[in-house]
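WARN no homologs supplied; continuing
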Amino acid sequence: MNRDTGFLWRVRDRAWLIRERPLLLGVINVTPDSFSDGGRFFATDQAVAHAWRLIEQGADLLDIGGESSRPGAIPVSLDEERRRVMPVLERLCGHVPVPISVDTCKPQLAREALQCGAAIVNDITGLRDPAMVEVVRQFQAGAIVMHMQGTPQTMQENPQYQDVVAEVKNFLQERLSSLQAAGIAAENLVIDPGIGFGKRLEHNLRLLAQGQELLTLGRPICLGVSRKGFINRVTGEPGWSEVGVGGTLGTLLFAWTQRAVHVARVHDVAEVRRAFALFIRLEELHGGRLRHQNQE
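OK structure emitted
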């Protein structure tokens, strides 16, 4: 990417040129135990109503998941994840004006979601399962390829890195090369450094501070920092449940100045949309120097 042409992201029959602002990926957790909003949208009617609310607030895409990936979360069966997710997809696919992403690492559920009309697979395991690779390839779906050290059950026990930025970058480069060799077009892929997934506070902050390093991989960067626990550990406030939107906004706006966020996975769509609208307008009046000062 350069600052004039932007990134092209293709997802089935839709394509975006991501340049003027990040795409907003609205989160819908159809789970009883997600770290931020577990249980609030567990019922199908609640999840569907929330989807329409996020669209009204300005979401460009929706991300629907039925299995919590918080640290220590207990895995759910395919049947249970299907029971949670598919009724919501059946009510939304073909009816909402935005593409839908399914947040899953189960190839069979991804296949059923894409058959239903979803357009993107958001896989926290980085599409390491060959069966998932084949599903994405067959449907020419978009995919978000994330880095995670360990599993949700073990990832925060003792994450270790010699150089977290280099190691995450190398992992994502390997996955991009492997996926393209398997027949998935580069333009279908977005990368995600996996903030909070098998990383200590210092790892998360280093990845965010040096987010520009991932630009050399040539794909858009998705950041999932919304309401995450590292924010409270920086601000000194206790408890994940108390994480507000302020830290989310600060993190995303910093990443934008570094050209290091192109898809923002967020719970608070309206607030993030407003913040970016104002920030980008001020940036334009400032001559674009905030975002481009490190590019000259």
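The beta strands are 7-11, 14-18, 23-29, 61-65, 100-103, 120-123, 142-146, 189-192, 222-223, 263-266.
OK
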